[in-house]
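Sequence only, no structure available. Ideas?
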Amino acid sequence: MKSEKRILSGMRSTGPKLHIGNYEGALRNWVKLQSDYKVFAMVADWHALTTQFNDPSAIARNSREVAKDFVAAGIDPEKSPVFIQSHIKEHAELHLLLSMTTPLGWLERVPTFKEKQQDIGGAERSPYGLLGYPVLQSADILMYKPYGVPVGKDQAPHLEISREIGRRFNNLYGEVFPEFVNIIGDEAVLPGIDMRKMSKTYDNCIYINESPDETAKKIKNAFTTPTKIKKSDPGIPEGCAVCQYLRVYSPNWKELWDEDRQGLRGCSQNKSECIEAVNEFLRPFRERRAELDDDTIEQILTKGAAEARAVAQQTMQQVREAMGIW
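Reply:
I predicted one. Tokens follow.
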């Protein structure tokens, strides 16, 4: 029997497409969780502004495209509300109120603050929104009083500040926000085609919404073992992007890896089988996405926003009453 407990997850709409790293690192777990929980799937467009404030013109369009990828990947809008963050104005109000109680030192210690500073050119160019990112993230999470938040093992420490912000509010005004747990799945970490982190910034991604030919071209150019010149040369599958994809998408990957190590198969054979495996995995995603026109996704987002807003309005009434500012 499905629990009424809520799960809150979100992704920034910094680009119009999600890649297989997004799916394996997060979406796969969301899809699994919606069988047992009420999953609120949020497209975090305000969060995208922290690094795209100089040109926000594409964010609205990107948000719709990311929502399409959510649904294509298996998020069922009949079970799981899919909505855009900025469509729920209560998020901004809770962010403001939480920012009044969050110590500045907490925010300055967040590791990702310094990382993002480098991305946009240093401290002197950092907007307040970048420093306050964890407060907005906390508002997003606490708004829905979730049982848990799906998160990768490497990202789990970043959620602790949201728990601290919730505890501080409770200590000041009374118990409003229950503690949430980290829900850590068995996600695979996929490298980009160049073996760096898969990232839109590096232009090394395989996207859910690209053609089979585009995927094939990328895999043909993907990084393999540099010392494997001939088929008989031993490979190092742990350091080969193609072998990493085979590990996730080929059922007999262990056998393929052993053959690669022994020099019994060449890189061309690996790439050919990888192209077939990845495209076959993505085929149903692409078929579902092709059925999602702009009108359909707007209807999904409108319905999702109505469900999210109903919860948000109730939470904000409790927040205002607790603070005595109703």
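Residues 294-323 form the longest helix (30 residues).
Hope that gets you unstuck.
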